[in-house]
Structures are given as structure tokens and as C-alpha cells.
């Protein structure tokens, strides 16, 4: 297939609230080739989850979506619900943040796996069962046959996330969206789950979007990173380029906020001061300006566009990009 | 699971004991001397005293309770001084009527309430939802005697489709029996479905917000499967409770509906016992009905475990 698998074109999501319309996603453009990984990074409330829900067409009922979400040659936003249903779970799969709530507590693991397989692939019950066992084994679940008859509450959090991944992988999707797949898990499990996702992605040659608030999660794993702030993409670059030389002060601040192992004890973390702007009252200028240590008068007056001044694949939206520093020690 | 059942069964014992005590106390606290009632107003004080002694009425309350409880545990609930029927005979004669009425009413109530609730929850806030929620509220505020009279007027008086009152046993004339039960069951069901519908609707709406429903949609499952398999089961715990309470309540017969439609059920037996001061029957029937209620609740607890594996495995 030629061209990207997924193209997000000028996508905006507005949510009506009692305080006015909330612009959760503010005209975002992104694209992703088959088999590649895109990391979407940003703090809570920056619109990254809403963006992923827009791709999945799982936005809240009242949300207004504009723009195009081209997936595999069709615009998901214009697809009728039956076509969309056939696509979801089959070509387009998702792993949610919290495996404690994303699996149905009253259905067995076997049911939840097999129903997806039988919905989309023409397999009878025994073939679907065999495939489920295979999938559970592939995501590293011991004694998969016994697990089929168990319920989610009989498994640990890490185990449940593996099961959720097995469900997502069950029909060999072309695109997997992992929405903070490790945020709700123990630190010791996080790396295992991320490695599992990366391994299965390579094996199945699927495209993947990893959504996270942690730049460390995408560092070695994504081909490209998009940093979001207040509903907009503020910096976007191939991962190595981004970590070598980040231009956007927000990206720098995000990275600085990650604790370093080699820091001296009691070093205060340089947390980003202030809060993201109120999304129901958009700022005239750059939305990061009130929290930015480089901000000048111009930043408060006009919104910088997302452009690639030095290299066409490294885009950023900033009037005062950081030019010299090697980032802040990745 | 077996552990769970045994624990629940043991928990029933103190409840049943309390039920028996309350039943006994209520019957004893009713004004009027039983001996006087039996002998009538022509009785001499000597006769009354003798009968009181015979019946043990001169004994202290706690002693009478223990001796009654002792008899009850041996299956002897006493005998009506009017008809000579034992409590068990009287109840056995009437219970099929009340049971059939209860089953038909609950069945019709669920048949209306559950689909309406699911349809409302699937499009909460929509036109159908608002209309049905309003109708349910209107139905809920109509007393059953009014509904009964309206139904009789429409189906018996105007349309002549169904008999207004009467009863034949199912074994004698199955179809005729059902015809007699339609209107009373419908009267009760029209009062039952709004509760069923409102409880299930609000639980369904809450469940449909869950992450696992979003994932079920993301898995590309059919809308019907999401509603009936993924959402209905986890939403039905309160529904089961409400249905259980309804069943328990209807088990004791329904005084008004049985009276209006002239159905010889437990409700009419109770009313009769009260009018004639037949305390033995009253006390026995109330005890049996209360036990029935406790047993229905036990079954409801068991159903929880069937519906939610977390309860089964002791995680919730």
C-alpha cells in the first residue's frame, strides 16, 4: 500500500461544558506509516487521549469532531456505524490505560478473547479457543488454557494488561493504539509490557501509537514523537532527532521533570510550574507562554505555527526555540 | 462456592428466629382475649379461666413463646378454632393461587420493565427515554385498586374479553384459570414494571459509562451483544434485589387485588383471619410468609453470586 496507514488531518474535538465549549483537540495533523510507531506525549488533559478516541471514533456523544481521520484509505469520521464496527477490533485495536477497569468483570477471559475473534474472523468455537490459547501464550501468560475459564479479578494487574493486549492483537490489527498502557501498572511490570508491545509489533508488522505522559516510555521505542500541549501538537520529530536536539521549551521541561537515577539525593525535581491553560478559554498567544521561562511579549500576542525551520521532519511551534543545548541529558 | 452457600444459610438462622419472635409478639399484643373470642360474649368467667388454662394463656409470655416455637419446629403451627383446619392445610389450600398470581405478575412486570429499561438506557435522554420515564412515574403513582377498576371496566365491562372476578383451579380448567388471572396479574404488573424499569435503567446507564463497554465497542462487537452480554449482566444486581423483594411481598398475597378479583389466595386468608380474630391462623400465616421472604432473599443472594464472579470468589 502506498502512503501512510493513518493520516489525521486538521482534527479538532470540542466538548460542550456548562462553562462553554472545551477545545480538547485543537487542529492536529499527524500521520503514521504501516509498521511504524508514533509516540504522543503530553501531561494530563493535553488532549492526547481525546485524540486517540477521535481516531477510534469513541468520543463522548456530545463531542464535536471536525477534520479527517484517514485510515487505510477511508475517512473514519464519515464511516457508517456498521462499517466502523467491522473495522474496529479487526484492523484497528486499542489497549486502554487501566486493565482493572477495561476488562468486563462478569465475563471470563476466554469469552472476552473469543468473542472478538469470532466476531471478525470466520472461526468456529474450537478454532477460536485454540487461537486464544496461542495469543495468551504469546503475551507471556503461563498456563493459558486454565486462564480462559478465569475471571479478570483472578489475575494481577500486569496479567490483565497482557490479556488486554492479547485481545487487541487477536485479529492481527494494522494499527494498535496503546493509551497509557503502563501508567496503572507497577514500575517493575511497565518495562515488560512495553517490551511485549514492541516485540509483538515487530512480529506482526503493525503500526502503533503509544500515548504517554512519560518521554522515557517513547525514548527507545517510537520512530517518531509528537508532543502535545493544550490540545495542539507543539513539537514533532523523529525520536532520535528530538532527543538529540529538542526545540520546544515545553518538551525540555517535560524531560527535566523525569527523575534521574544519577541525580544527587534530595535534588528537587524541576516540576513545570503553573497549570495548563483553561481549555474553555483559549489564549491568544502560545498556550505554554504563561509557564515558559523563555517567553517574551510576542509569545503572549500571537500563536506560533508548527513549522520545520531547520529540517522538514522536525516541526515545532515556538518563537524562541532552544537551539544550542543538547537537550537536557536524555 | 459451597462455603458461600453455607455461610448464607447460617446467617438465615438468627433472622428466622427474630421473625418468629416478632410474629409471636405482634399476635400476642393484639387487643382481645383469645379465650373470650372463642367462647363468645355468653361465656362465664369460670369457663374463660378454664379455657385460658387449657390453652396456656395464663402462662408468662416467654413461656408461651417457647412452647409455640417448640410446636412450630415440630411442624405444628396450630389449628383454627373456627374451621378446625390446621394452619398448614389452610395455607396449602391458598398458596397455589397467590403463587400463580405472583409468578404471572412478576413475569409480566419483567417482560415490560426489562426491555423498556434497556431501550431507555441505550439512548438515555432521548425522546423514548423521556416518554417512558414519565409514563413509569405516572404508573407508579396510580394505586392498584384504581388500576384494577380501570382494567375491569375496559376488558370485562366494555370489551367482554376477560372475566372480572372468580377463580377455577388450573387442574380443572387450565385456560379458564389463566383467563381469571390475567387482569389481577396485569394490575400488579403495572405497578411492578416502573420500579423494575427505573432501577435497571439507571444501573445500565452507569454501566454503559464503564471502560469495559468502551473496549467492547473498540472490539467491534455488535451493539446487541454489548447491551445484552456486556452491560445487562453487571447491571442486574439491583434488579434481582428488587424482583426478590417484589416476589417476597407478593408471596404473602395481595390483600387488595385478591379481594377485588375474588381470588382465594393467602391475602384473603389473612384478611379473614383478622376479621374473625383467628389469631392462630394469623400468627401461623404471617410466620410462613415471613419465612418465605427470608428464603427468597437467600435465593437472591445466591443469584448475586451467579451474576458476579467476584462475589462467588469472595473478592467483593
Q: Which sequence of SSEs, written as H and E, runs from N to C of chain B? A: HHHHHHHHHHHHHHH
- End-to-end separation of chain B: 14 Å
Shape of chain B: globular
User: Gyration radius of chain A, to the nearest Å?
Assistant: 21 Å
Shape of chain A: globular
H/E topology pattern of chain A = EEEHEEHEHHHHHEHEHEEHHHE
Overall mean pLDDT of chain A: 87
Strand content of chain B: under 5%
For the sheet with most strands of chain A, the description reads: 7 strands, mixed
**What's the average pLDDT of chain B?**
88
Q: What is the strand tally of chain A?
A: 11
Secondary structure: helix percent of chain B: over 70%
Which two chains have the most extensive interface, and how many residues on each? A-B, 29 and 24 residues
Distance between the termini of chain A: 35 Å
Keywords:
heterodimer, A: 330 residues, alpha/beta, seven-stranded mixed beta sheet, four-stranded antiparallel beta sheet, globular, disordered C terminus, B: 316 residues, mainly alpha, 15 helices
SSE blueprint and pairings:
The complex is a heterodimer of chains A (330) and B (316).
Chain A: E1 6-17, E2 20-32, E3 37-41, H1 48-56, E4 64-71, E5 74-75, H2 81-87, E6 92-95, H3 99-102, H4 109-120, H5 125-138, H6 144-147, H7 157-169, E7 175-179, H8 187-204, E8 207-212, H9 215-219, E9 224-229, E10 232-238, H10 239-244, H11 249-256, H12 297-301, E11 315-316
Parallel strand pairs in A: 3-8, 3-9, 6-7, 7-8
Antiparallel strand pairs in A: 1-2, 1-4, 4-5, 9-10, 10-11
Helix pairs in contact in A: 4-5, 5-7, 7-8
Chain B: H1 2-29, H2 34-39, H3 45-55, H4 61-73, H5 87-122, H6 127-140, H7 144-158, H8 174-208, H9 211-218, H10 223-235, H11 237-251, H12 255-260, H13 266-275, H14 279-307, H15 309-312
Structural notes for this entry:
The complex is a heterodimer of chains A (330) and B (316). Chain A has 330 residues and is α/β, with parallel strands linked by helices. Chain A has a domain of 98 residues. Chain A is 32% helix and 21% strand. Chain A has 12 helices and 11 strands. A 7-stranded mixed beta sheet of chain A has the order 6-7-8-3-9-10-11, sandwiched between helices. In chain A, strands 2-1-4-5 form a 4-stranded antiparallel beta sheet. In chain A, β1 and β2 form a beta hairpin. In chain A, α7 packs parallel to α8. The longest helix of chain A is centred in the middle third of the chain and has 18 residues. The C terminus of chain A is likely disordered. Chain B has 316 residues and is mostly helical. In chain B, 77% of the residues lie in helices and 0% in strands. In chain B, α5 packs parallel to α14 and α6 crosses α8. Classes of the chains: A alpha/beta (330), B mainly alpha (316).
